[in-house]
Specification:
The protein has 144 residues and is of the alpha+beta class. The protein is built from four helices and five strands; from the N terminus they run βαααββαββ. A hairpin with a 6-residue loop joins strand 4 (124-134) and strand 5 (141-142). The longest helix has 19 residues, at 98-116. The radius of gyration is 16 Å and the shape is elongated.
C-alpha cells in the first residue's frame, strides 16, 4: 500500500457512473415490477452501498477508508433502454474515494444484470467511469 500517513486529512468526494443496457421490453418489465427476484432498483442500490463499504477487501492494496456518505442512484433510461447507476461517496481522510465510488457502481450494475439476465440474455454492462472527484492535493476534477 502507498504510505499516506504524511498527507493531511481533508473532505473527499467521488462520483462514478455506469449503465446496464437491455431491451425496451426488459425495461418495461423492470418498471412494472414483473421480475421474479424483486425490486431491481432497491436491490442494486443496497448492493452498491455494501460494495463501497467493502472496497478495500475487494481491491488489492486499496486503503480501508472511513466513509461518511454513500449514495447510489439507480434510474431507468429510455435511450439507450436500461438502468443508469450513479454513486457518490464521501469521507474525511488521507486518500480519495474514487475506488469506492467505482466499486459501488460496478457491483450495483452486476446486481441489475443478475436480476434481468433471466429475461434478457443480451443485457450488458457498459461505460463504468469516474465522473468527478474533489479533495486532497488535486482539488476538484470534473470529467463530465
Amino acid at each position: 500500500m502507498v504510505d499516506v500517513s504524511d498527507k493531511p486529512e481533508s473532505e473527499r468526494e467521488a462520483v462514478a457512473r455506469g449503465m446496464v443496457v437491455f431491451s425496451a421490453e426488459t425495461l418495461a418489465a423492470v418498471a412494472a415490477g414483473d421480475l421474479r427476484k424483486g425490486d431491481v432498483r432497491a436491490v442494486a442500490r443496497l448492493a452498491g452501498i455494501q460494495a463501497a463499504k467493502r472496497t478495500s477487501e475487494l481491491i488489492p492494496l486499496c486503503h480501508p477508508v472511513p466513509l461518511t456518505h454513500v449514495e447510489v442512484q439507480v434510474e431507468a433510461s429510455e435511450t439507450p433502454p436500461g438502468m443508469q447507476v450513479e454513486a457518490t461517496v464521501r469521507c474525511v481522510g488521507r486518500t480519495g474515494v474514487e475506488m469506492e465510488a467505482l466499486t459501488a457502481v460496478a457491483v450495483a450494475c452486476l446486481a441489475v444484470y443478475d436480476m434481468v439476465k433471466g429475461i434478457d440474455r443480451a443485457a450488458r454492462i457498459a461505460d463504468i467511469r469516474l465522473i468527478a472527484k474533489r479533495g486532497g492535493r488535486s482539488g476538484e476534477i470534473r470529467l463530465e
